[in-house]
Specification:
Distance between the termini: 205 Å
Helix content: 40-55%
Oligomer: single chain
Strand content: 15-25%
Number of strands: 27
Radius of gyration: 65 Å
């Protein structure tokens, strides 16, 4: 402020400046008090209604502090300590004192101006001083408005202080929560409790259902009619459920309103927030964890002693078969540490389960099992979670079966000689191992006066414990003492080492053979009868070959009448002035065309020919099959002769060299050649070229020749069979003569003895 101004002017300006700052301070303080009260009331209401979590309150604290500081700065410090210029103060005075007529501003502006007349400036100052005398700058301010605002703010402060004093606990709790940032809660008029939660969480198995049970204390002033449950996860989002179904229960002399809701098949962990009346339950979570299961389940089988097998460990499945009388040990590992494990065993006694608390290993031992057994494992982990469905396994018992004897007599018919040797082929099978095997026989004499005999012959080569034993044994009839006229009953008996149920083994038998004992002559007669039957069968095959040959003979490839007429219709046309050489050339060409027509196989002929060839091929295959059966029948006759000790060198030469080998040669060579030739003829018939007729005719003639040669060979074999039959007839005649001689000799001896007795008498 210029020091040259008169004292009165300076004092007026200074007083105005002080009053401006004073009233600005009063106004700022009033605004600050009202702002603080408003922020306090708003924050208290919001915090008490919503009960913000610590994170939100931590954010609100600097906002409140910043708002207060901003108000102090903006409404008090900035306004009270702002610089006020002299010209601004003079302008304010000029505004409220119009009679100055801007002399005060002019005096201040021109105070230091040398270009203005000093006398003029002095006169202006005098006029200004005289005008300011008696002017009170306090009249420039609306003090009533300012003091009213300040009084209102003080009243609000007083009321707020009184309310805080009356609700000191609430204010103290607000201060602790929002200033000191504690986690204390406001007192409630209602009470909610969540059942089943420990430290705000509960655990259930994956896929299980969970029933949420919330109790509301009915003794409190407020009892909620509904509950709002906010459930979800930050990743998947939240949803709100309304629970309005409840029931009333009495517990510990307190009445409770119980709200419940069921969440089926939960697969993931969720968070819960429950609101009812003025109470809120926060920080609740339902943790979904896997239920305990068993892995690496192994079954160790301890077999019965009679099986002579070492113990075996296999993977245990839902259904496992074990041999009868086997003791078992089941070992498994749980997917998590267990608090408890039980095994319900149905069908067996003496089960022993081994498990240590907190361990994952389980061991179950069962004694020798004789019946089907089912086992159900129930597991409980350290969180008291159990598997929803028991882990079930079934043990099926494989009963020990008697040995299976599959045997046949090779080269033996229903009749044998007393010196026969019986070859036995096949196999003996037992599921758990054989112990022994033998042949049982019994002879039944022709006369009832002679007692039957029985016997046993052990089979050699069997090692105890074998499960499959190839059978290749011979049985001699001679030690049995059987004579012609007797009958021999024969079978194989095998037993295993089964010793359970106080048993000494199970027995299996083969089929029973009932054989008739005959003399060598009688057996030869029987075999000769079978040879006659085979010769008749051979003759039938010969007849079938002849019919096949007749089919080929009836099939003609000669030119058809239509082909002949077409060839004859070709005439030589003559031309004038044609040379002899040209005419001869055209004649040759015409002749070639006629020949091609005659040599071309007709389509109908070719189709019929292929049909007949297919039929002939089927016939030849059947004939080869029949001849194979005849050869096999002769082989059996030969084997019977050998096994019955009646096979001689003559018989070997007759059967092997004169019958079996020639028939085998027919099948391997002659019939095979005919089949190949028929295939070639069929291929020629598939083509219609003119050149194929001569080839087809030639192939047909060659096949007919092969049939003729085949029939000639078969006739030779048949004649040898017939000659053998005549030879057998001669032998039979000789045998009858010998029998007659024997009868005559016996009668002669008896007659002599009779006469001798007569003489003695």
């Amino acid at each position: 402020m210029p020091s040259e101004l008169p004292l009165i002017i300076r004092r007026k300006l200074q007083r105005l400046a002080r009053l401006l700052r004073f009233y600005a301070a009063l106004h700022g303080i009033a605004i600050l008090l009202l702002t603080a009260i408003l922020l306090f009331a708003l924050n208290l209401a919001l915090d008490k209604f919503f009960e913000f979590p610590l994170a939100v309150r931590f954010i609100f604290l600097p906002i409140l502090t910043g708002t207060i500081l901003y108000t102090i700065w903006q409404c008090i410090i900035r306004r009270c300590f702002a610089e006020i210029r002299t010209d601004q103060l003079a302008s304010a005075i000029e505004h409220f004192v119009p009679k100055l007529n801007e002399t005060l501003i002019t005096t201040i502006d021109q105070q230091n101006n040398d270009d203005v007349n000093p006398e003029l400036i002095r006169q202006t100052l005098d006029k200004t001083v005289s005008s300011l005398r008696g002017v009170d700058v306090r009249r420039f301010f609306r003090t009533g408005r300012i003091f009213s605002l300040f009084a209102i703010s003080l009243l609000c402060v007083a009321l707020t202080a009184g309310a805080c004093t009356y609700h000191s606990e609430t204010v103290s709790l607000w201060f602790s929560r929002n200033i000191l940032l504690s986690n204390e809660e406001y007192p409630r008029r209602s009470q909610l409790l969540a059942d089943g939660f420990q430290d705000g969480r509960t655990r259930i198995g994956r896929g299980d259902s969970f029933t949420l049970s919330i109790r509301a204390n009915m003794e409190m002033p407020l009892v909620p009619e509904t509950l709002r449950v906010r459930i979800g996860t930050p990743d998947a989002g939240y949803r709100t459920l309304l629970i309005d179904q409840f029931r009333t229960e009495l517990q510990d002399n307190t009445r409770w309103r119980v709200f419940s809701a069921t969440f089926p098949e939960m697969l993931e962990t969720v968070n819960l927030q429950i609101r009812g009346a003025d109470s809120t339950l926060e920080g609740l979570s339902i943790e979904v964890v896997p239920t305990p299961m068993l892995t690496e389940m192994m079954l160790t089988q301890h077999f019965p002693e009679y099986m002579q097998r070492p113990e075996r460990t296999v993977a245990l499945t839902g259904r496992t078969a074990i041999p009868d009388g086997t003791a078992i040990t089941i070992t498994a590992q749980a997917t998590k540490p267990l608090r408890d494990a039980t095994a319900d065993v149905h069908g067996a006694r003496g089960a022993s389960l081994a498990h240590a608390t907190g361990s994952v290993d389980i061991s179950l031992t069962l004694p020798a099992l004789r019946e089907e057994t089912s086992i159900e494992f129930r597991l409980t982990d350290l969180d008291s979670l159990s598997n929803r469905q028991p882990i079930r396994t079934e043990l099926n018992i494989i009963r020990d079966q008697p040995p299976i004897v599959t045997a046949r007599l090779d080269g033996i018919g229903p009749a044998i000689t007393p010196e026969a040797v019986l070859p036995m082929l096949g196999e003996i099978i037992d599921d758990n191992g054989l112990a022994q095997a033998h042949i049982r026989y019994a002879t039944q004499p022709e006369s009832d006066e002679t007692p039957p005999t029985e016997g046993t012959v052990s089979l050699s080569g069997l090692t105890p414990g074998q499960t499959i034993w190839p059978l290749s044994q011979t049985f001699s009839v001679l030690p049995t003492g059987a004579v012609p006229g007797d009958k021999l009953l024969l079978y194989i008996e095998a037993s295993d080492a089964f010793d359970l149920d106080d048993s000494t083994g199970q027995t299996g038998t083969s089929q029973r053979w009932l054989l008739e004992i005959v003399t060598p002559e009688q057996l030869k007669t029987l075999l000769e009868t079978r040879e006659i039957t085979l010769r008749q069968r051979f003759e039938i095959v010969m007849g079938e070959v002849e019919r096949t040959q007749a089919i080929l003979q009836d099939f003609a490839l000669e030119p058809l009448p239509t082909q002949i007429q077409q060839a004859e219709a070709l005439l030589l046309e003559s031309h004038e002035n044609e040379s002899e050489e040209s005419l001869a050339q055209r004649r040759r060409e015409l002749e070639e065309r006629r020949q091609r027509i005659l040599d071309t196989i007709n389509i109908d002929q070719a189709e019929l020919g292929r049909f007949h060839i297919s039929r002939m091929l089927r016939d030849t295959h059947k004939e080869v099959y029949d001849l194979t059966n005849i050869v096999e029948s002769f082989r059996l006759i030969r084997a019977e002769m050998i096994n019955n000790r009646i096979f001689t060198e003559d018989e070997r030469r007759r059967i092997d060299l004169e019958i079996m080998q020639p028939i085998q040669s027919l099948m391997n060579m002659d019939f095979a050649d005919i089949d190949r030739s028929l295939g070639i003829l069929e291929g020629l018939l598939l083509q219609s070229e003119a050149a194929n007729r001569p080839l087809a005719l030639e192939e047909r003639r060659r096949i007919l020749g092969m049939f003729a040669e085949l029939l000639q060979k078969m006739s030779a074999i048949r004649d040898r069979m017939a000659s053998m039959e005549s030879f057998h007839e001669v032998l039979e005649l000789l045998r009858s003569i010998i029998r007659q001689q024997q009868i005559l000799r016996n009668e002669t001896v008896e007659e002599r003895n009779r006469r001798l007795l007569d003489l003695l008498d």
